[in-house]
Specification:
Strands 1-2 form a two-stranded parallel sheet. By secondary structure, it is of the alpha+beta class. β1, α1 and β2 form a beta-alpha-beta unit. It contains 2 helices and 2 strands, in the order βαβα. The protein is elongated and about 35 Å long.
Length: 47
Amino acid sequence: MTKIAVPKERTAGETRAATSPDVAKRLVGLGCEVVVEKGRWRQSVND
């Protein structure tokens, strides 16, 4: 199984994410394990 990690950005003011929730769902559907750092997408949506 392939494991994919989606970390939070550490640079101040950076709001882009390496992937989106929709893409993560598709990757899981293809058999990947997707691990998202807590708060990753909340940061993107709120900014």
